[in-house]
Amino acid sequence: MFERFTEKAIKVIMLAQEEARRLGHNFVGTEQILLGLIGEGTGVAAKVLKSMGVNLKDARIEVEKIIGRGSGFVAVEIPFTPRAKRVLELSLEEARQLGHNYIGTEHLLLGLIREGEGVAARVLENLGVDLSKVRTQVIRMLGETSEVTPGASSGRTKTPTLDEFGSNLTQMAGEGKLDPVVGRQKEIERVIQILGRRTKNNPVLIGEPGVGKTAIAEGLAQRIANNDVPDILEEKRVVTLDIGLLVAGTKYRGEFEERLKKIMDEIRQAGNVILVIDEVHTLIGAGAAEGAIDAANILKPALARGELQCIGATTLDEYRKHIERDAALERRFQPVMVGEPTVDETIEILHGLRERYEQHHKLKITDLALEAAAKLSDRYISDRYLPDKAIDLIDEAGSRVRLINSQLPPQAKELDKELRQVLKQKDDAVRAQDFDRAGELRDREMEIKAQIRAIAANKKDGATEPNDSPQVTEEDIAQIVASWTGVPVNKLTESESEKLLHMEDTLHQRLIGQEDAVKAVSRAIRR
Questions:
Q1: Which of 4, 58, 154, 201 is most buried, taking the most CB atoms under 10 A from its CB?
Q2: Which CATH number is 165's domain given?
Q3: For residues 9 and 448, what is the distance between their CA atoms, to the nearest angstrom?
Q4: Same domain, yes or no, for 476 and 505?
Q5: Helix or strand (DSSP H, E) at 380
Q6: Could you tell me if 323 and 198 lie in one domain?
């Protein structure tokens, strides 16, 4: 039975055993399962019980009132009571009735309520819970109607394992949580083209770090959310899979393979999932212990047959190092090269993202600042790629401007310093029982606080004026580039013509005694 339990349900059983040890009992009853459900904290059952006013502290007190504490001797293996075993059987029955192929915390809670005669039911009644309403609340929380027919499955829980280890990009795009994707039409069209193939329909986005590979997957999700795709991709879900999260916590041999197999089965049954694996080279060797096979080899058959649609993303170096070496894996993926955008394309991308950064930093970003970010990052930050480095410049400049504008004026700082002194003197006066003096200082404290509030309000009112609202300008961008690279700000903002005029002086700093050569080179460059 336990192989059908979700990880949260298994955690509940482990917590129930811990509760039995804490109370000194050598059995796990319905009451310990109830304490485990509340203690787990994140499952459907815990949320339902919390919404009905049940907390762990009160439940523990009620349990101790009813059954008391044990002798203190607890065996290593704590058995279930017959009633607790009955609850587990009923939870399996509840899962079947709801059409679920797994047992979660919600099914355990429904099993407890349905059993109805154990200590857990008495504890809930003592805490003022109406047992007849629990089932309705659970079903409402699951997003289903109360008239669930046996065998019917809820769309929300068709892929529970995938939902646990992945993020639904299509849903996020529909909710407006993703940044807009500007340009990249050619790459997105090519990805859609590959996804439309019958077999080997798995694009892999190859490009340098920061050129916007993940943004292409997000762009596809946004197109699906807006129904701007061919009919073959309509109603598809783009889900990112976190390989690190998938491997994490797999202590025993076979656990990782079991998780991955569950995900593959769910994707096969759902039939509308496009998997996105960022850093796809991490599949090779993931979960491979001695004698076990890694994730790449588990996925190969499904990738070749077209049962599993996957969009990979990796850098050129990692692709050559890991994927090209494995010819069988390489032939299952169709490469899509993602190049670095030009400066003009980067400026366009920044225009598209401007609103998001203005909302986050609560300021305005000028057009000149966007141009400066693209041009200066391209010229002076050579070890990174556009548009990532230009976006980072805008982000950090916004943070810097907001920080400067959020500081209190000098007058308010002085008042704040005086307020601290007054508070200290007031405490000293109270300790010395000089209550007249303490009363005077309290009045002074109120007066200073009112002055600080007035200054802060004036500053805030001033900021609401359109002309006074903080702005990110090209000078702010230059300051950030200077702090990153060490190149002085005046050198960054100096115009090209001024640089050309002073070219001889600059060259003479490095070349001594080469007057004619320096003049000839400078003249040639100026021409």
A1: 201
A2: 3.40.50.300
A3: 56
A4: no
A5: helix 367-380
A6: yes
